[in-house]
Each structure stands twice: as structure tokens, then as C-alpha cells.
Amino acid sequence: MKYVMKQISPDHIKNASTKELLELWELTKRMKCSEESSIVRGWLVDELETRDPESIGAWMESEDMYAFPKDFIKVLDQVLRSAKPKRPRGRPSGFASRC
């Protein structure tokens, strides 16, 4: 699985569909927590938040530590691709504990 993480780059994430991003998130959650997997999850969350800030904000603020971003995403990929990116918000204090 480490090999998979080394193949993922910010450019790969920007060009992936929302479905692919959510699948990658689930893949990283099944992996042992490491610096590499945490960095990739950060990239994934940044891109998902750019595409659907309200849904990702609701996920980050949720009390359910077992929730996945896919449980909150509501915006279709076509709409997301044409949306103007918004400035990212800061990470909540509990973000690192989702590792």
C-alpha cells in the first residue's frame, strides 16, 4: 500500500473525480496511519473542500468519529468542476485524530 501512496500527487488529486477522491479516502483509512497517509488525506480533504465546502465543513464538525466524507458529499461532479474554488478554511482541532 505504501507504493500506492507514492503514486498519488496533488496533480493526480486535482484531476480525479469526486468519486475517485472518496475511494482514495477510504483506501487511506484502511491503511496504517503514517506520515504519508496523513499527507495524502490532507490533500484529499483540501480538494473535496474546494469542490463542496459546505459538505466537508459539516463532516469536519460532526461528532461521529466513524463518519466518512462520502456520508456528507451532496454536490454532483459536473457542478463541482465548473465551480470557482473557495479559499480553504482552517482545520478543526480534532482533524488529526481522524487518522
Q: Can you give a write-up of this model?
A:
The protein is mainly alpha-helical. It has a domain at 18-84. 58% of the residues lie in helices and 0% in strands. It contains 6 helices and no strands. The chain has helices at 2-7, 10-15, 18-30, 35-51, 53-61, 77-82. The longest helix has 17 residues, at 35-51. It is globular, with a radius of gyration of 13 Å. The mean pLDDT is 76.
Can you summarize this structure?
By secondary structure, this protein is mainly α. The chain has helices spanning 2-7, 10-15, 18-30, 35-51, 53-61, 77-82.
Keywords:
mainly alpha; 58% helix; globular
Question: Overall 3D geometry?
Answer: globular
Mean pLDDT over the residues: 76
The rounded Rg comes to 13 Å
Q: How much beta, percentage-wise?
A: under 5%
So how many helices?
6
Low-confidence stretches: none
What is the tally of beta strands? 0
Class inferred from helices and paired strands? mainly alpha
Order of helices and strands: HHHHHH
Largest sheet: none
Distance between the terminal alpha carbons, to the nearest Å? 16 Å
Specify the helix fraction band: 55-70%
